[in-house]
Write a structure and sequence with these properties.
- By secondary structure, the protein is an all-alpha fold.
- The chain is 45% helix and 2% strand.
- It has a two-stranded antiparallel sheet with strand order 1-2.
- It comes from Nesterenkonia halobia.
- This is DNA-3-methyladenine glycosylase I.
Length: 211
């Protein structure tokens, strides 16, 4: 999932480095926005995801986040999983107009027709990619040679040449809601880049990059 909002709502972190929680551990400031965000930051965000289903779920949720806070999506994640059959690409690819109407009536998710139909279309595109190496190979082929080493929040990028290239490749393959900023957030979430602030106790935790 996402590089959540850079900071939790109401926290002015311009120019700030790591924030130390009550447990004495240093984190990127957005992780202290709530217990939910802290748990996500400490155990999931930035850890490698290399399987098709896991990447399809995260790509889908990144698309639903567009224009919203990550906390909103994270709070609804289990509802999304129920509504979209655990994000099994083959099952979602078979969704029809009746499923679209069902999802539009589901108050547990984001009821946005464009995002719902994009997710179904992206499932079909995911299945089609299997004849060309697959979704995981396509996404991870855009891992850069180096990763950012931000000391303060202002130094965390929101896009990169690699995320721009990934967005272009996915769009060419029929995916939607996969812009460069959204794809950079995906790359952060699944360990392709590491944007934990220097000094965070999670820096380097993925094993993909040194601390």
């Amino acid at each position: 999932m996402s590089q959540p909002h850079r900071t939790p709502d109401g926290l002015d972190s311009a120019g700030t480095g790591v924030a130390v929680g009550e447990d004495g551990l240093a984190r990127t400031p957005w992780a202290l926005g709530s217990a939910m965000l802290r748990e996500y930051y400490d155990h999931e965000w930035g850890m490698p995801v290399r399987d098709e289903r896991g990447l399809f779920e995260r790509l889908s949720l990144e698309g639903f986040q567009s224009g919203l806070s990550w906390a909103t999506i994270l709070a609804k994640r289990e509802n999304f999983r129920l509504a979209f059959a655990g994000f099994d690409p083959d099952t979602v690819a078979a969704f029809d107009e009746a499923d679209v109407e069902r999802l539009l009536a589901d108050a547990g998710i984001i009821r946005h027709r464009g995002k719902i139909t994009a997710t179904i279309g992206n499932a079909r595109a995911t299945a089609a990619l299997r004849d060309h190496g697959g979704l995981a190979e396509l996404i991870w082929s855009h891992q850069p040679a180096t990763t950012p080493r931000p000391r303060v929040v202002e130094e965390i990028p929101t896009r990169s040449p690699e995320s721009e290239a990934l967005a272009k490749r996915l769009r060419a393959a029929g995916f939607r809601f996969v812009g460069p900023t959204t794809m950079f957030a995906l790359m952060e979430a699944v360990g392709i880049v590491d944007t934990h602030l220097m000094g965070s106790h999670r820096r380097g935790a993925s094993g993909v990059w040194p601390g």
